[in-house]
Structures
1.
Amino acid sequence: MTAVPLRRILHLDMDAFFAAVELLRRPELKGKPVVIGGRGDPTRRGVVSTATYEARAFGVRSGMPLRTALKLCPTAVFLPVDFAEYHRYSGRFKTVMRSVSPQMEDRGIDEAYLDLTALDRSSEAIAGEIKDRIRAETGLTCSIGIAPNKLLAKMASEMQKPDGLTILAPEDVAARIGPLGVRKVPGIGPKTEARLAQMGVQTVGELAAVPVEALVGQFGRAYGVFLYEAARGIDEDPIVTHWEPRQRSRETTFQEDTGDWQTIARTIAALAREVAEDLRGEGYRARTVGIKLRFADFETHTREKTLPAPVDAELPIRKAAFECLGRLKLDRRVRLLGVRVGELSRADAT
Ligand code: TTP
Ligand code: MG
């Protein structure tokens, strides 16, 4: 058996995010119950996106109808959702995180993971710096959890909201998560909670006492094993630093400049095939195909074609590349050729 290296994962979650952003431009509302949702009119249809902690004290929760929130807290101020503004702030706190380590996993508008394993500063120092810089650059607070994996880090960031910092050392895990209700485990929702309750299981510690066979029998193999491991704080999910590429290209510089049409044609075909393989390997399709051609004197030309529909097959990409090539006058020796595809979309998107 190979030893799994101990990781250090940080999870950051912004506090009352949409509401906190709204308070930045309406500081007079600080300390008051404020509810963000829909068009901000509680007499019309819409649900609560989030609420300040003052409004939560009245029982207001994300996802409930605005009307219900109004009944629970008639004195609350209701404001409409302004996604564009929240996205701007989301970009800012993630820029701070990425500057600490590029090993960041974006988990949506108000949370992200960061892999600290390779950093040689203490968890406290890193968390302190991130909090200070986010506060300085946005005026917002966040809660941070640091633990040996993503599952535990996310549970830790919830433990001391708002403006919290919770560091779970491996030896503390059982004692810290055992007493929590099973709903505190990311991946356990209300239905699983209810089924576990029927089995007499309310806490993570009680879940950890259930044999894996019993969980697999109840919930199926994949989810049963997930529950078994989660109850022990086991999670090997890696950080996924995925980002959506906008284009893919391949190019090649000839060892010697060439004026030979056969060589140029063969090269374009080979580059088109490589680009198509890249696309399929990464699960994307492209809507545009272009070529780049640099002559021996470094004069560089590009041509691009937009396809009627996104493609990831070699043939349409090669055809389009040759069409582009046909639109260039090959009157000098060529130094470099490239094929580029753009306007990428996920191949699995409909
Ligand atoms: P959360 O992080 O769940 O909530 P929060 O940031 O408002 O509060 P907390 O301090 O407890 O983290 O969600 C982040 C944002 O996502 C939240 O501000 C609004 C939005 N959201 C919805 O629009 N609908 C929902 O049901 C939830 C849960 C969140
Ligand atoms: Mg949040």
2.
Amino acid sequence: MPLLEVKNIVFGAGSERKTPILSGLSLSLEQGEVHALLGTNGTGKSTLAYLVMGCEGYAPSSGEIRFDSVVINGLPVHERARLGITMAWQEPVRFEGISVRDYLTIGKKNVDPVSSLQMVGLSPELCLDRMVDKCLSGGERKRIELASVLALGPRLAILDEPDSGIDMLSIHDVINVINAFRKNGTAVLLITHREEIAGIADRASQLCYGKIICSGTPEKVAEHYKMKHCQTCDRVECHYV
Ligand code: ADP
Ligand code: MG
């Protein structure tokens, strides 16, 4: 039985939700599976992430999201977090007045901030007492956010473009982080628009114009993606769906 099962979800944005963003999207993830979601900018990858996480204003107008076979469509973010779903945002968060140590440990049990930071390639000695504010680079904030997701030991981690940011994480960094999740038995929905990143997954799917148009091995999907994608998703007319 899949850990996450997204069935036929429809979601529109804007006034009266009339701008179609996802139009009958289905996707499933097994326990502990790393599943890459490839798609050009604007295809709806982050929107899917927000729907699975249950962010404010993101509820599908039809379709089902099941986690551990329970329908979670109506659950708020904190209840989904309690079930073991966590997300690292495309734009990492910034908090004024909180140290990295506190950010990684407050409200969490049995967290080892030192090993979490090491797993994302940061030096605990240099980082733990710094503030999670504008003095950190984009790449550092990204790593610290990934460290906090790792520290939680979730059942499902949604990583929205872990390689994006002002000074990007290299593919090597992303591979290390994904391997740390693998070691923990965490399933990962790995959102990216780079086929090299998708290559480290167990399985992959391509999102195009609000639908999954190809699923299978990362090699197969990356090959399809290379041949069949637009520069950006203009959401007007699509050749591929
Ligand atoms: P991706 O993460 O794949 O780049 P997004 O999920 O961020 O794509 O966005 C998908 C599409 O939905 C884009 O065309 C974006 O402009 C549009 N969109 C996202 N949120 C809203 C919103 N609140 N209102 C109107 N359009 C939106
Ligand atoms: Mg996005």
